[in-house]
Design a protein that fits this description.
alpha/beta, Beta-Lactamase, 4 domains, eight-stranded mixed beta barrel, six-stranded antiparallel beta sheet, 24 helices, binds ligand C2E, binds magnesium ion
């Protein structure tokens, strides 16, 4: 339907302008209209006054003679008519102007209200933007509360988040009346009620004023408050509480505004939580990528980084740093015999001891398996690094307890010390690793400091490993025999089989030069089996060729791996049967490290061998920990005093006393005692004085090939 204004051809604005009497067709302002109304009133009043004056003049001024043409009656009615007409116009105009004025007042009120709403909406949008700009949860909570405060003109409020199934906890609060750290069950209090109903709540007036009055120390309660649920994707995250400033009351409109704000706030909280979760996962991933998860020690990658940092720091200070590379000796035995979880237990407790042993600034790491590394900073000379390594090796003075058993361990340590002028983390690590390998090849529990020549040696060893496999295939191995002597008087009573390698270029290699390689390459059992058969057959031939006064015993070395082999006992039976050697003439030599772990397997094998009648010897006696306890635990027939004690027998009182004690012990326990590595007559004499029954060494005779042994025996019998 077309409006009357449109039909008259004028727009509302034009009509309004015309009513207001304005020449331009712009929308009249309230002031314009009011001014027009004032003008109209003034004009009306002026006209009425003029008419009144005229009438009065003509009515009361009788002395003036009227002109002839003057008709007073006509004039009076004429004036009354004009007044009536003008009044009618003025009233109509006044009504129009008043309506227009009212319209303009209403429009102004509406505009103000609309402006306020717009301001609120833009504040909401701004708040939403601000909340989304931060990702840290605490910062998000702070921003939410600040924005809510700004929106509602207060400084008092709190955010409670859902904890567990049905609890709300205040996680952020500001102002006086908000209870920090408050906890509410769903349904309890105002926030609890909002959590249950998920509906916003406007509170006007003080709730439970009597109870409040009984709490004299408490802050005055707010006279009005708003609580809205924080819901994101239909999930209740918490409740936002806002308390009015003193004397202020909130209304429904503000509640609606805060509800809207609550939706934005909930989204921001959900985002921050998601971000935090992702950050946590990311940091866990980073942790896992840089740590050994069994011991929680840094891994190789992180350790390399630490070395690099240490190097750059030290370069400025002109100091030394040392890298200690540790490898647990015979750790594989623990895994093989006690199981991998026992091995893990040992690694964990070793890592713990290592942590307590190093200085707080020194970095430690596990490289996997039984390899560990320690970075020792701020040392002034290489001996300091050796001292640090010795302190670490002291860790092994105490046994490790695994599943109620005591396990003795040792470690080989390689040290690389750098002057740090031209060095990289990788080089340092490679050097320490090389030194560690040298330490391992020299025996157990050793500390070796890296030297440049070691790289060449390492390469040579690698070549040797390949060659060794070929040597076995091409039968380049041989068994030599070192005679064992009774010392009072000197006569040959036994022989020890020692494996040798006729290397095509290097000539004859002793066992010590290649057995560690064989162990690494997994060739040890194969070699041991071959040596045992070869040695027994040689003795059989020897017996036939050389008339011996008394049958010699044959000592054969058994490697730790071979000792745990399931077929060991069967093999011994087979060899004895094949060669006709009496079981009691076969002595199997095992090192202390081989029986270090008191496994059921080792005990069973040793007992089975014992029951065959075979003799057992403990080789290199005295170099291991708790040597004496091994004598009690295992069915040992013979101990072989290690060469280091024989070396010092004439010079070192301690070594002398130890040899004496072992000899006495042997006599007391009915165990044969053989002294190894006798190189000088003085040593042989000293041993005789200590009444050591047996001995072997270069002083008497070195290890000989079978034919040379036969000649030697012929000469000495
Ligand atoms: P071991 O059983 O204690 O053997 C003694 C080692 O000392 C031998 O070295 C021997 O040549 C050396 N030796 C003998 N008398 C003297 C001396 O007066 N002075 C010095 N400095 N050394 C002397 P080899 O043959 O190199 O053997 C080293 C170790 O390798 C042996 O120590 C033994 O544990 C092991 N081994 C040797 N042959 C075999 C084998 O066939 N199987 C296994 N499993 N191990 C073997
Ligand atoms: Mg031996
Ligand atoms: Mg020995």
């Amino acid at each position: 339907m077309r409006s009357s204004e449109e039909t008259s051809g004028l727009t509302l604005t034009e009509r309004a302008a015309r009513i207001a009497g304005l020449r331009s067709f712009e929308t009249p302002t309230l002031e314009d209209v009011e001014y027009r109304r004032l003008q109209l009133w003034m004009l009306t009043l002026s006209l009425l006054l003029a008419v009144a004056v005229a009438l009065a003049t003509f009515t009361f001024w009788h002395d003036l003679p009227p002109p002839a043409w003057f008709q007073p009656q006509v004039l009076q009615w004429g004036l009354v008519g004009i007044v009536i007409l003008f009044c009618a116009y003025a009233i109509e105009k006044e009504l129009q102007l008043r309506r227009l004025s009212q319209l303009l007042v209403e429009e102004r009120v509406l505009t103000t209200a609309l402006t306020n709403r717009l301001r609120e909406v833009s504040s909401l949008l701004e708040a939403g933007k601000a909340m989304n700009l931060v990702l840290d949860l605490q910062e998000v909570l702070e921003t939410i509360l600040n924005c809510a405060h700004e929106l509602l003109g207060t400084r008092d409020g709190s955010i409670m988040l859902v904890h567990g199934e049905d609890e709300l906890r205040t996680v952020y609060a500001s102002g006086k009346s908000a209870a920090r750290g408050a906890r509410l069950r769903f349904g309890e209090g105002i926030a609890g009620r909002v959590a249950t109903t998920r509906e916003p709540l406007l509170i006007s007036g003080i709730i439970d004023p009597e109870r409040r009055a009984r709490e004299p120390g408490a802050h005055p309660p707010p006279t009005s408050s708003l609580s809205v649920p924080l819901i994101h994707r239909e999930m209740l995250l918490g409740v936002l509480n806002i308390n009015a400033a003193e004397g202020h009351m909130y209304n429904e409109h503000q509640l609606r505004a805060l509800s809207l704000f609550g939706e934005l706030a909930a989204a921001a909280i959900a985002n921050a939580r998601l971000y935090e979760e992702q950050r946590l996962v990311a940091s866990q991933n980073v942790y896992q990528a840089l740590h050994d998860l069994l011991t929680n020690l840094p891994n190789r990658a992180l350790f390399l980084d630490r070395i690099t940092h240490a190097l750059s720091r030290r370069r400025r200070k002109d100091q030394l740093l040392a890298l200690l590379f540790l490898d647990l000796d015979d750790f594989k035995l623990i895994n093989d015999s006690l199981g991998h979880s026992a091995g893990d237990e040992v690694l964990i407790s070793f890592a713990e001891r290592l942590r307590n042993c190093v200085r707080s600034g020194d970095a430690i790491a596990r490289f996997g398996g039984d390899e560990f590394a320690v970075l020792v900073e701020d040392i002034s000379s290489p001996p300091h690094a050796v001292a640090a390594a010795e302190r670490i090796l002291a860790i092994f003075a105490e046994p490790f307890t695994v599943g109620g058993r005591s396990v003795w361990l040792r470690a080989s340590v390689g040290i690389a010390v750098e002057s740090l002028v031209a060095s990289s983390a990788e080089t340092l690590l490679r050097n320490a690793d090389t030194a560690k390998n040298v330490a391992k090849s020299q025996g157990k529990g050793r500390i070796v400091v890296f030297e440049e020549t070691m790289h060449v040696d390492a390469l040579r060893r690698l070549d040797l490993e390949v060659e060794l496999q070929q040597a076995i295939d091409q039968q380049q191995l041989a068994v030599h025999f070192q005679p064992i002597f009774a010392l009072m008087p000197n006569r040959v009573v036994g022989i020890e089989a020692l494996v040798r390698w006729h290397h095509l270029e290097k000539g004859l290699l002793p066992a010590a030069a290649f057995l560690p390689l064989a162990e690494q390459a997994g060739l040890m059992v194969e070699i041991d089996r071959w040596v045992m058969r070869e040695a027994c057959e040689t003795l059989k031939t020897l017996r036939a060729e050389v008339p011996l006064k008394a049958p010699l015993w044959l000592s054969v070395n058994i490697s730790p791996t071979h000792l745990r082999e399931a077929g060991l006992v069967d093999q011994v039976v087979e060899v004895l049967t094949a060669t006709g050697l009496e079981a009691e003439k076969l002595v199997l030599e095992v090192t202390e490290s081989a029986i270090l772990i008191d496994t059921d397997k080792v005990s069973t094998h040793l007992n089975s061998l014992k029951s065959l009648g075979v003799k057992l010897a403990l080789d290199d006696f005295g170099t291991g920990y708790s040597s004496l306890s091994h004598l009690r635990r295992f069915p040992v027939d013979m101990v072989k005093i290690d060469r280091v004690f024989v070396d010092g027998i004439t010079t070192d009182k301690g070594a002398n006393a130890l040899v004496q004690a072992i000899v006495r012990l042997g006599r007391g326990l009915n165990i044969e005692v053989v002294a190894e590595g006798i190189e000088q007559q003085s040593q042989a004499d000293a041993l005789q004085q200590l009444r050591c029954p047996f001995g072997q060494g270069w002083y008497f005779c070195e290890a000989l090939p079978p034919d040379a042994l036969a000649s030697f025996l012929r000469r000495s019998m």
